[in-house]
Amino acid sequence: MAALRRKFGEDYQVVNTNRATTFSAPVKKKRQRFVEKNGRCNVQHGNLGGETSRYLSDLFTTLVDLKWRWNLLIFILTYTIAWLVMASMWWIIAYIRGDLNHGHDSSYTPCVANVYNFPSAFLFFIETEATIGYGSRYITEKCPEGIILFLFQSLLGSIVDAFLIGCMFIKMSQPKKRAETLMFSQDAVISQRDGKLCLMFRVGNLRNSHMVSAQIRCKLIKSRQTPEGEFLPLDQCELDVGFGTGADQLFLVSPLTICHEINPKSPFFDLSQRSLMNEQFEIVVILEGIVETTGMTCQARTSYTEDEVLWGHRFLPVMSLEEGFFRVDYSQFHSTFEVPTPPYSVKEQEEKNSLPSPLSTPTPALTDSHGARRNRVFSVDCINTSVERGCQGGAGGRLPSKLQRMSSSGKEDLQRKVLLLSSQHAEKACSTGDLPMKLQRLSSSPSPGAQNRLQLKSLKVPSGTGRRDTAR
């Protein structure tokens, strides 16, 4: 830890996230990969039937695609057989003309001088094919069939040389070896970048020569079933790594971290840390570019399975500033460290953020209980307003003197009792028309005479208060 801080500073320190929200992934068996880590596609074609003849129609590509041991074997056998066949043809001409019996006769003019057995015929062919020309063996003018065979040998030799040597040259200059110096991180990580959950992996170039027009693409290979019931065992889905913004066009002079933002358009929209343990998918990464030195197109591939995707991790930095240049430390190329990352999927986080706050929404007690509470408050307000207006007085709207004294002496007591009575479910004070009954029940004085007078005078209240409420 201390060495890491000294090297990268305080901003890059390992954060331990061993909390209750983290989950330990179960041990999985190594499953079959569609694309190996070295980029080889793990697919074999079988039961071709009569389609194998298509390989012979494209013989040059077939030879280039063969492994080196088979290619070298075909190269050696082709030249050996061609030399033996052509040497045999020169020997046959000498045998038919009888040159083998007059090999050492100086007065005899043969078809080919100094060819009197098969080894001498083979040497003549090699000297002619390789244009060595030692001078002891040559074609005479009295051998037209030898001249025709010589022309055929020259044409056939040129074709064989162009075919085999060209095949070997193309195979040696293939950009597959250039792809060996393009690196991918062993694991992919999922963490937050700029406040967004992202899937990231790292690519690097080990050579000083650049990759011109380097472009990167990602494919998600996952089995799925369509709504019609069709099962797709290896369905390919595109992962956006910046196609719309141009981030997929790389300037690959130093290691780069490729980022795929997980949003509603991403196949990982509902992927969480817990569901990652039960998923089964493979991410295929394809890096293409033109080799600067040869001008040939190079392609490098790798893949990441679900057990190679680390949740809540981030790559360690590998760039450092030296005196006059930047240094890349490839010993930390595959290293990651843990960072605090929510274990929830983006879909769950958006649903959680879209839920309304309890403080900003009305409670069911205020809205769903048939408006009882609101009506009770309205009734109390009407009582307060009517009492205040009765205290202020007015033409045709003055309350009886008994009620004025009650409102002036025990206004708070009256309101408290009205609230207590209005909370009962059997009574609902929805308007000022309920005031007579309320006042009758409130006027529980110890004197029966006072109670009767209060009941009689309270009957006048609805007319006055009703007119004021209507006017108001």
Tell me what the structure shows:
Strands 1, 2, 3, 7 and 10 form a five-stranded mixed β-sheet that branches. Strands 4, 5, 6, 8 and 9 form a five-stranded antiparallel β-sheet that branches. Strands 11-14 form a two-stranded antiparallel sheet. By secondary structure, it is of the alpha+beta class. The longest helix is centred in the N-terminal third of the chain and has 30 residues, at 68-97. It starts with a helix and ends with a helix. It has helices at residues 2-8, 53-57, 59-65, 68-97, 118-129, 144-172, 176-179, 346-354, 364-367, 372-392, 401-409, 411-422, 435-442, 448-458, 461-471, and strands at residues 182-184, 188-193, 196-205, 211-225, 231-239, 249-250, 256-261, 282-291, 297-305, 309-311, 313-315, 319-321, 326-328, 336-338. Helices cover 38% and strands 18% of the residues. The protein is built from 15 helices and 14 strands. Helix 4 (68-97) packs across helix 5, helix 4 packs antiparallel against helix 6 and helix 10 (372-392) runs antiparallel to helix 12. It is elongated and about 115 Å long.
